[in-house]
Amino acid sequence: SQLNRLSVEDKGLVEGYVNRSRGQIMNVLGDPLLQFSATTFGEAIEAQKYYLEILANAKQQSEEAAQKRALRFEPIKKFVNVKLLKHDVININGKDEKVAVYRIASKTDKRIKNIKVQINIRKQGDFLMHVGTIGHCHISQLYKELGAFEVAEIACVVGDQEYLTMPEDDWNVIIEPYYLEFSDGNVIEVERF
After folding, report:
1. 108 partner at 20 to 30 Å CA-CA among 76, 120, 149, 181?
2. Can you spell out the DSSP letters for the chain?
3. pTM value?
């Protein structure tokens, strides 16, 4: 067959194109990634190369944006460390709830009155910031002040979020502390969006 005469690389490109198009011929106006009009192996190879090039550029731009975004939260991360500790089932108001337990550790000798943290969980390898969220949590209140270098644990109800069905190695936990209030009234707040 003609497919077997292709190089391993070209055969992989054809297979990638066929998997993406699901064997259909269609054109979605305005979206070059959804143009499936190849009728020959050569056209399929070129279309898949173009798709992979666009995807690589988008991934690079997304990684650069994520790095830039992460820097935004550094002023708060200097004072606290937030980490996913474990998942558990606890009784809340007579009902068993699935929770994610986060550890908040002070890295300062100042007392901390409150912290606000946005946590998103994405599939490893998903690089677009606006898609791929499979779990989330929002911490908006400490239950007690954190003393110098103290640690607190906060449970966040997660219910049946998608990531709980996946192996932990498949998670990318993105922790963004955006508000920190010290007991002396000083506040550090950063833009979330």
Report:
1. 120
2. -TGGGS-HHHHHHHHHHHHHHTT--EE-TT-GGGEE---SHHHHHHHHHHHHHHHHHHHHHHHHHHHHHHHHTHHHHTTEEEEEEEEEEEEETTEEEEEEEEEEEE-SSS-EEEEEEEEEEEETT---TTS-EEEEEEE---SS-B-TT-EEEEEEE-TT-GGGGS-GGGEEEEEEEEEEEETTS-EEE----
3. 0.71
